Amino acid sequence: MADHQASTAGFRSDMLMSCHHHNKRPTAENRQLTGLEITHLTLERKPIPHERLIKEATVGLGVEKKISKMRNAMYEKMSNLHNKTYDIEKMTGTSFKNQRELLDKQCVVLDGLQSIIEFQLRVLDESRDIEVQWKLFS
Question: How far apart are alpha carbons 110 and 59 in whole angstroms?
Fold first, then answer.
C-alpha cells in the first residue's frame, strides 16, 4: 500500500512537472490522477486473452451452426408441408371433379327414372281406360 501511494505520489508530481514544464495549468485532460483512476485505466487497457477470444468465436460459430441447422430443418419441413398441401389440393380437386361428374350422372339417371315413372303413369291411365271400355262393351 505504501509502495502504491509512493508511486501515485510520484505520478502526481511527474504530472505536475509536465504541466509546469509546458507552462500549462492542469486541466481535465492533464489533471492529477488518483490511484483508483490509474488502476481503472490499467484494467481497461488489459488485453483480452487469446483463449477467451477463441472460446467466444467458437461459441459464436456453434450458435451460427445451430441457427443454420434450424433454418435448413425449417425449410425442409415447410417444403414438405407445401408438397403435402399441393397433394391434398390436387386430390381434393380430383375428388370434387369426380363428385361433380357423379352428381351430373345421378341427375341424368333421375331424369331417366322420371321419364319411366311418367311413362308408367300414362300406361296405367291407358290401361284403366281400356279396362273401363271393356266393361262398357261387355
Answer: 74
pLDDT, tens digit, for every residue of 84-123?
999 999 988 889 999 999 999 999 999 999 999 999 999 9
Q: Which three cell numbers stand for residue 42?
A: 490499467
CB 15 within 8 A of CB 33: yes
What is the rounded distance in angstroms from the CA atom of residue 126 to the CA atom of residue 136? 15
Chain Cα centroid distance, residue 110: 53
Instruction: Measure the CA–CA gap between 60 and 72, rounded to whole angstroms.
Output: 18
Per DSSP, helices labelled H in the chain are: 2-21, 35-44, 50-137
